Every structure is written in structure tokens, then in C-alpha cells.
Amino acid sequence: INHIVHNGGLYKRPFNEAFEETPMLVAVLTYVGYGVLTLFGYLRDFMRQWKIEKCQNATEREEQKDFVPLYQDFENFYNRNLYMRIRDSWNRPICSVPGAKVDMMERVSHDYNWTFTYTGRVIKDIINMGSYNYLGFAQKAGPCQEAAAKVLSQYGAGVCSTRQEMGNLDKHEELEKLVARFLGVESAMAYGMGFATNSMNIPALVGKGCLILSDELNHASLVLGARLSGATIRIFKHNNMQSLEKLLKDAIVHGQPRTRRPWKKILILVEGIYSMEGSIVRLPEVIALKKKYKSYLYLDEAHSIGALGPSGRGVVEYFGLSPEDVDVMMGTFTKSFGAAGGYIGGKKELIDYLRTYSHSAAYATSMSPPVVEQIITSVKCIMGEDGTTIGRARVQQLAENTRYFRRRLKEMGFIIYGNEDSPVVPLMLYMPAKIGAFGREMLKRNIGVVVVGFPATPIIESRARFCLSAAHTKEMLDTALKEINEVGDLLQLKYSRRRLVPLLDRPFDETTYEETED
Amino acid sequence: QEKEELIEEWQPEPLVPPVPKDHPALNYNIVSGPPTHKITVNGKECINFASFNFLGLLNNEKVKSAAQASLKKYGVGTCGPRGFYGTFDVHLELEERLAKFMRTEEAIIYSYGFATIASAIPAYSKRGDIVFVDEAACFAIQKGLQASRSNIKLFKHNDMADLERLLKEQETEDQKNPRKARVTRRFIVVEGLYMNTGDICPLPELIKLKYKYKVRIFLEESLSFGVLGEHGRGITEHFGINIDDIDLISANMENSLASIGGFCCGRSFIIDHQRLSGQGYCFSASLPPLLAAAAIEALNIMEDNPDIFQTLRAKCERIHKALQGISGLKVVGESFSPALHLQLEESCGSRENDVKLLKRVVDYCMNSGIALTQARYLEKEEKCLPPPSIRVVITVEQTEQELDKAASLLKEAAQSVLN
What we know:
The structure holds two protein chains of two kinds.
Chain A: E1 2-5, E2 15-18, H1 24-49, H2 77-83, E3 93-94, E4 101-108, E5 117-128, H3 143-155, H4 170-183, E6 187-191, H5 194-205, E7 211-215, H6 220-229, E8 232-236, H7 241-254, E9 266-271, H8 283-293, E10 296-300, H9 315-318, E11 328-332, E12 342-346, H10 348-357, H11 359-363, H12 369-383, H13 390-412, E13 418-419, E14 424-428, H14 432-444, E15 447-448, E16 450-452, E17 463-467, H15 474-491
Parallel strand pairs in A: 5-15, 7-8, 7-9, 9-10, 10-11
Antiparallel strand pairs in A: 1-2, 2-13, 4-5, 6-12, 11-12, 14-17, 16-17
Helix pairs in contact in A: 1-2, 3-12, 4-12, 5-6, 7-8, 12-13, 13-15, 14-15
Chain B: H1 2-9, E1 38-41, E2 44-48, H2 61-74, E3 87-88, H3 89-102, E4 106-110, H4 113-124, E5 130-134, H5 139-148, E6 151-155, H6 160-176, H7 178-183, E7 186-191, H8 203-213, E8 216-220, H9 235-239, E9 248-252, E10 262-266, H10 268-277, H11 279-282, H12 289-304, H13 308-322, E11 329-332, E12 339-344, H14 351-367, E13 370-371, E14 373-374, E15 389-393, H15 400-418
Parallel strand pairs in B: 2-13, 5-6, 5-7, 7-8, 8-9
Antiparallel strand pairs in B: 1-2, 4-10, 9-10, 11-12, 12-15, 14-15
């Protein structure tokens, strides 16, 4: 369904999101493919059980053979028979900075991916379309790296204590003030791991007797945080505002399931950019709903902070909304800032509460000082406070790259999911054999891509996912596009039945970002 | 109509309740500069008795230069999880070195110490399985157990008789329903050195119970890795137990190794499973390479100087003896444990008042140059909340004079505040 929505003034710019339907023939062939693989899987398991084929799995100790088996046989069926065959597309070891071009250690397998050996050779200069390096801050030289090196020699690498005990350094305070200023909120708090930020703070905010409305395709960390909190969880269809409204109405009108008492709080969990779909949340509508039904909004900007918005301040700025409307703004520093960790921003009461009651503040070690310094320098660069315009240039370069890349892929005839402005580009593969083939063919042509299949995606919707970066130059994108075109023809991946008329190649669409004067 | 009215009338609670300004956990100590042996807390220069820097590697020049070299080669972040171009050769090297050091087949690294055990337990123990866990287990273990949705059975701290009683009860349950028993997995989760009490777990008896009742053992060695044992290999070396008898050893690298992150080690049969089902491993960015390089160098130092463990234990014994007999405070913890607790001998009635009293003791010591901290807990979230206490941490860098000074200062503080 392809739609362009202007929606009565809520949206200040066109919102183009498309998820083309799977062609029927392709769906059927995909199911057939999985069916054949499953049959072969059973056959080989049978042969392994009867010792006709050698079993190469690691096995239990002799002394513990009469213990209850640790894994159920069926649990590992997928692992043994499908994942093992194409396992070389994942966990590829690299040995250089994960920038626009990366060096990979070559590895071969002589026994169909059960074990790998490293030949010792290094494949150099692979175009990296897999790392989350949106603004190109993964650099081994430059102002960020120099600042981090200075802090490393002064402070050391570790901290050895928690925030509430002796681990709160002056660097952490500086970082939190800076992040709060960057986001436009009253105050912020930073944590050592993005995953843990979600899974340890959602339980601190909601508990039993509260309701969580979470999007269908939310990340594992949000799902884990929601589960650990003990609140009731209800799921609405991906980015579907009618589904969300219906759930909100039902919740307030009917109350808690058995006792009919009113809910204590309602929390809506959404992400800025969904990394598997490439879609952007419909934030103006979500905020309108939130205000109407008096619920709270938790926005996870893991992929969108730094990547969207004219000055890189994320999805809130992209839609021209005020950060005060979002109750809890969460994000990570791993993707656009080239560091590690997560943050939560919001009103001062919220952050004070989290400082006291967050699981991470009381029990987990605080962030490492050089990592903190990297974030401080990169945030200052994006805001333009280091005196250069590098930050702004990178944000614009990323937007330009996104538009160009997506348009060219659509012109070639691939099915691309997601919003036109999202730097995450999923290209549909569907069939299980093509997952492995695509990954390997692209590597042969010196391009590193990420392919994903079940269980991260629905079983027939496997895809290849490209992550664009401000560090990619137009030449690199053109090389990549040429190779993708070739491989697409080779593997017959051009499923789209809707051909876009190729535009004359305009390098930058001037209407993308108007300069807004506040 | 009436639905609209209901929607109009409903008032939610505020998102967060207000926090009183003088809440003890709200005002953090601000450390200016590196949190090493000599530390500047809130503007005062003190000797550090609060950071878990057991082997003094936080300020070690070799570790720092290894991290610098890594920073120059790889930058800071890894920009991806392990599955998607986030696996660096330093990660693979660190995993190999850890496996070799602990003499196991394989090791796996996490980028956050808390997430290590909290992701490892739910990878193996699912709904319907049974886990026997010590009452004094740390919060990370409790969160891992909560995420696993298994049946939790708590046994009294270090009480093997209580554990055996629970195991026997489970055995009689099994005999009633043998089909279910054949697919229910059982685990015991214990810590080597308990963070909350400073005690050591009786591992030889646990091994006997393991084979008698067919339960698997998960051992959490955050405090004992790099402290116990002749070469610092932890509690298995301390008791001389074959490491293959323990199914999974998990530890964090934030204490002795002075880095960030954690690891699990064991046989490949067990560890390999976490590479696809450990949530904190698959869905989270990998450890920054400079921290991995710092950990490798720290391991090198540990292997080259095996006598620091003996030195550390001697210092622990010394201060343990020196702190006995302070009126009003009792020492909780083994004599060779580098992380002790000082609890009030008699509580004043409410936990809040106890905490305030201990804060005065801590402030007295900080004003005179010894940095201490109270052990922080989330009071409402812990299953078995330990009593309020002051945490005393011993590191190799502290000299004998400093240890004596700390002990005498604590005596003075206790005298003036508690009497």
C-alpha cells in the first residue's frame, strides 16, 4: 500500500512510507523453499541419529549424560539445519575502524560452516553498508579521537564502581548537561549500554496496575523492559494509529481486565526509526492521541537521533514538534555518535526519579571516560559548538545519500520497504536460498551487507538491510548500486511491479530541508 | 456519550512520584579526575576505599597504552552488534585468552557487566524449569531469573542443609509426575564471593549435591575472579575443583580487570548457545575495542605477576583483624574477601535512621581523607534486602599505613557518631 499523507495539518511535510505487497508467486515459492529445507533437515537429523552421518555438534559431558537435556531437540532444528548453511553471512570479523570502508579477516570453512579457519589474509577496503555509522563518527583520527585519547591517559579505561557509590565522575555530569541541551529537554541521564537503558528503566517507571501499549515491531530491549516491569502489555499494529486509538479507548473505558478498576498509567512505547522495516513513527498523530487520552509517551530514538532532522536532533525535530510533548526521550550513543551507551531525557522530576530508582544507577558500573569524551566531542560537533560546520554538513550529506540511494534502488525495480527519509534501507529477498547467495555475492564484489532472516523478521520476509552513512561518498554509493544491480539481475531479485520513471540525476533535491529560523 | 465522559473523567497518576530533595541516593558524590588510589571526591582528596579496583589496574600505564593503541587503530565505538560487522579481532582474541586463562573450552564477551548474568540465565532456563538460588544473590541474578520466568526456589544463605531439603522435596514431586520431570531442567545459581555479604560459597558440597540430584550449577564470579585461587582463576582454583564440573562461570570484567563488560566461560556445548539466544549479546552493540584491549593487557599482567593475589589476600586479612572490635559496628565478610561490609551492631529502629547514622560515619571519614561509601540497594525491588552497611574495599595499592589509618579512623568515627 503506497500512500502519501498530509493529514489535515498535523504533518508539515509529506510522509511517504511504502510496504509493497509480496507478489503471490514469490510467496508460494518461498514457502516451497522452506518446505524443502525442512524435509532435508529431518532427513539429515535421521541420518545423524542413526550414525550414518557424523554429528558435528558439541555434545554433553559423559558424566552428565543422565541429566535432563539442556536443549530441546526441536529448538535447535532451525539452528542446525537452516542457520548453519548460511552462517558465514554473519559474525564477520573485521580488523579496522568500522567506517565507510572496512577491512575484513578472510575465513573459510571446509566442513560446510560447522567450523571456520582464518586464512590470515585480510580483505581490504570493503564498502561497509552494514555498520550503524550514520554520521560517520567512527573514525580513527580527528578531533573526537584526540579528545578521547587525552581523557584515556588522564582517567584510565574503567571506573570500577556504580553511579550511586563512587562512580559518578565530573565527566558524566558534563555529558548529561550537554545531552539535555542537545535534545532541548530539562535534564538527561546517561547509561553504559543502550539495551540496558530500556530493560532497566521501563520497570522503574511502570509496574503492576499500569498498561503498556507497545508497537508490534518493537526492539527486544523494549519488549524485555516491558515484561520485567510486570505491567499489562497490549500490542498495536505497526505504525497503525487506528489500532492504537482503539486500544486506548478500550483501556480507559473498560479499565483493568478482571477488576474493572481504572489503570494507574498508560505508557505508549514507540521507536523513532524501526531498524528492520525502515519506517518512521507517525509522531504527530501519536502525540495528538497521547494528549487526547492523557497517556505517556516513551520514544526510543536508537536509530533516529543524529540521523533525522535538519540539525540531527532526531525524529521530534524532523516533524517540527516540541520535545516537551514527549514524556521520555530515550536514545543510544552507539549509532550516530560512534561510541557506546544510552541516555534518557525528560523533565527534571523524571530524571531525579531515575537517578534514585533506576536499576542501572544502583547496580551497574558507570560509563567509561574515553567513551564519554567521544560522545561529548561528537555532540558538540553536531551542534556546531566546536566552531566548524562539519556536523551540519554531515547531517545534510546523510539526507542526500538517503534520498539518492533509495530512489536509485526503486528505479532498478527492487522492493524497498520503509519511509523515504530513513537511512535504513531494507531490500526484500524473500527466499531462503537468496539470503546466503546475496551475502556471498556482495562480498565477492567487495561490498559488505547485512542480511536478515527468521526469527528477526517474519518467516517469508527475509531481507538485506543497508545502513547509509554520511561517510559514504557518491562514488562509493554508485559502485555499490552498480554491484547491487548486477547481483539483483543474477539472483532475480527485482520483484517490484511498480516502476518509477528514472529522474534526471539531480544531486540534491533543494526542497528536502528548508532552513528554519526560530 | 458515556464513553466520552469516562475518557474525560479518567485521571492518570503522574508519570513519576516526586523524590524528596534529601533522599540519600539522589545526591551523588562527584569524583573529579580518575577514580584511582588517590581520589578527589566532592573537592576533598582521599584514599580510595570504595572502588572495586582490587588489582590496582585502573591507573596502570601498560593497560592505558594498550588501550591507546587500540583507540588509534579502531576509533571508539563498534557501531553494530556482534552479528553485523561488530566482531573485531580484539574481541576474538579476548575470548580466546579468557578461555585459556580459565582453562575452559570457550568464552563469550558481553559489553555490560550487569547484562552478562542477566542474559545468560534466561538463555538456558525457561518457563517451567526450576532454579535454586541463594537468598543473598545479587540484583543482576534476580533480574535474570525474573526474565527467565522459571520457578524460583530460594534457600537460606550458604545453608547446604536447606538446599538439600528443597532438592529432596523436588525429588518427591518428580516421582509423582515422572514425565514432566524428564523435561524440567534444574539449575543452582550461586556466587563465588557474595557481593552482599562477603561470604564464600561452599563449592565442594555443591558439587556433591549436583551429582546426587542431577542439577546444573551456574557460578557467578564477579568478585572472586582475579582474587581467589593461586593464579587468580577464582573459586574453582581456590577449592581445587575441576572446572568442567561447573556448567557455566560468569564474571564481570569491571572489578579485577578494571575494564567494562563481562564474560561467560565453560564448555562449547553450553557457551555456543548464548551466541544466538543471549539477549544482551545478539541485540546489543559489542564492546568498544579499546576496552577489550585494556582487558587483554590486564590479563597479561595478571598472568605475569601471580604474587599480587597473595599480597591482596594478606592486606585483606590485616584490615579484617584491625576492624574487629569497633564498638557499634560489626564486620561482615570472610577474612580474605576484598569487599567487606560494616553493619550496625544494633539497629536504631528504622532503616532510614540507620542509613542516616551510617552516612554520618562515612562523612566523618571522608572529611579526614578516607573515601568510603554506603552499599546502595533499591529497597523496594530486592527480594531479600540486606541491612544498611558501609562498603570497605581493599586494593593492592593501599599501603599498610593507609590500612591502619583507615581502621583507626573508622574506630574514631564510630566512637564519635554512635556513642
